[in-house]
């Protein structure tokens, strides 16, 4: 819709822009939170962490191109951040997030999982959590933030 409008837009045409909207809000009664994402999910991960109170616990896995993309993430919560650096490898074919998720040992208690990454990868990680770790579907939120190019053209 927006690309069609942009292709036909003329100087002076009205444009309405909405500001950041709240992402899916989850109850704060989980024992633990796991946030998983690539660099495109950094703003959302930062927002999640800033909103968490001191009594929350979170494990964060963030895949980035290299160390230069690391950012300070502020939170009152008890947070452990795992920076996963591709160091020249392609973002679409990377498996750093998936490998970290396979190696992750869930905490005791109820855990909510939030995933923001390339669309197919986010879907695969959600499936892994549900089918291999037995995580309840209601406790997983996966969001495709972008799509990798298809082999012969764009997706």
UniProtKB/TrEMBL annotation:
Transmembrane feature ranges:
none
In terms of InterPro entries, this protein maps to: FNR_nucleotide-bd, SIP_FAD-bd, SIP_fam, SIP_rossman_dom
Domain SIP-like Rossmann fold residue range list: 31-148
Coiled-coil regions listed in the entry: none
Siderophore-interacting FAD-binding domain: which residues? Answer: 1-23
Q: Which family does it belong to?
A: Belongs to the SIP oxidoreductase family.
Protein name (database record): Iron utilization protein
**Organism source for this protein?**
Xanthomonas vasicola pv. vasculorum NCPPB 890
């Amino acid at each position: 819709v927006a690309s069609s409008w942009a292709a036909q837009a003329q100087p002076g045409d009205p444009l309405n822009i909405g500001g950041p909207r709240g992402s899916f809000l989850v109850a704060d009664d989980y024992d633990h939170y796991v946030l998983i994402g690539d660099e495109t999910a950094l703003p959302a991960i930062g927002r999640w962490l800033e909103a968490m109170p001191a009594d929350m616990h979170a494990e964060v896995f963030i895949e980035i191109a290299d160390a230069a993309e690391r950012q300070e993430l502020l939170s009152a919560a008890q947070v452990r951040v795992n920076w996963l650096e591709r160091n020249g490898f392609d973002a679409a074919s990377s498996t750093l997030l998936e490998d970290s998720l396979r190696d992750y040992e869930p905490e005791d208690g109820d855990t909510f999982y939030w995933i923001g990454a390339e669309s197919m990868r986010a879907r695969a990680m959600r499936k892994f959590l549900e089918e291999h770790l037995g995580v309840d579907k209601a406790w997983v939120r996966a969001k495709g933030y972008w799509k990798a190019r298809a082999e012969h053209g764009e997706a």
